[in-house]
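tool_call: predict_structure(chain=1)
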Amino acid sequence: MISDKPVTGMGEEKMLKTAAVFSDHMVLQRNKKICIFGEGTEGSKITITLGNDKAYGRCRDGKWTVYLPPRKAQEGLIMEITDGQELVRFTDVAVGEVWLAGGQSNMELELKDADEGKEILKQGLKEAVRFYYTPKQSYIGESFEMEERKSHWELFNEKDAAKWSAVGFFYARELARKLESPDGKVTIGIIGCNWGGTSASCWMSRDSILAHEMTRSYVEEFESSPLINKPMEEQIKEYQEYLRYQEEWDKKAAAVYEKEPMIAFDKIQELIGPCGYPGPMNYANFTRPAGLYETMIKRIAPYTLRGFIYYQGESDEHKPESYYDLFTGLIRQWRQDWGDDTLPFLMVQLPMHRYQHDPDTKSWCIIRESQMRAFHTLKNTGIAVAIDCGQFHEIHPKNKRPVGERLALQALSEVYHLIPDREAFGPVYRDFLYRDGGMEIVFDYANEGLVCSREKPTGFELAGNDGIFAEAEAVFEKDKIFLRSDEVSEPVMARYLWTNYGEVTVFGANGLPMAPFRTHIFH
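tool_result:
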């Protein structure tokens, strides 16, 4: 099923193939063994040449994997792959830094739709950034290989880069500016592997989801659907019918929103009919658990990477209590698939968000907390706190540059060790103690002090043993905050910005926001 690169001659089907992620203009990871993989004739000897390097392998069970030796950053290389009968040739190959950009719609949001995006596309780019988009396919059907065959690594130009992940672009551009080899610039390659509206469960194997009691409901609920028992042809037909319906519905909804941006979702459905999303829950549906793991993740693993950047969580707000187990399971899954449990994983902590007509369920608070817990409990992780990058009544904020650049700060600090961690983090809750009828909150990454963007800080709350929270007055004490409330005489718990959407007022001296927190985690 691995798609092929055109080889010598025309006519008959070629046997020697590489995975679709290998193409002209590709970026290979520097300073690591480089994994090249594909399909071929059983027993054939595979020879790969890259510059002056040469490596060999043997095709077994129709598949082959060859490792090239590590190389320093460079551009303009040619790679040739042969089995003695056929030849695959790739040109303009670069060796640099490769990152996979995973997640859902806020990672998927395209550069042309982001703030500054259109200007950047017109101005051009001096930094060396390249992009590969893993084909978005929800099931393996007749056209699967054809779509993979169309995919290829892209250079920056106004047409192609318009479709790139905005977060991925801003991340890559910042790394390209800050990483330099003794020989000059370092090319940054981003592999986009994301799809809007997806749960983390879409990007994991079925076995991995079932392995934990807190997450297995994702699979159990899907497999209880009677729709999956129909013939696959019928499942595909039903899903295609839904897609046509939903496309028309989306057009009508966009027209309504243009006239009345703050209209309630229920009201829209009264006007134009029910929204069909996410469609019939069957094996053709891209939101099914483990689906995109099979059709996207496994198509690019184990392409040699430096690590992962990830922006997701919105579509798991209906099961917030299970998100920590789901998310950490995904991290372990991906590291396992790439054969390296030390691969860096840099995540975006969800920003503020709430639709005007929705109640404050505080589900996003628990997702954010789970993301911070993952950062604290799993090695080689980083977290870009984006709490101030949200937008009221808009789940897709367009200001993606700070998100990408904060991810880059995490990489520069935690992966490349080029800057101290105090430059990469805003204040992060560490501990508390009781004193003087209030609570003293202690933070990491706050040695240079705290800054309030308003007349006084807001968003802090205290509660006693009854668990009822009340607004608290906050007094800054260098890297600490003392909280007191007239309504809580004996506080035992504190929290900050424990809301789906609220005003962000507290930052570190470096301008990065304080991460939301609560002093006690409830299970």
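agent: Residues 1-11 have pLDDT under 50 and may be disordered. Proceeding to next step.
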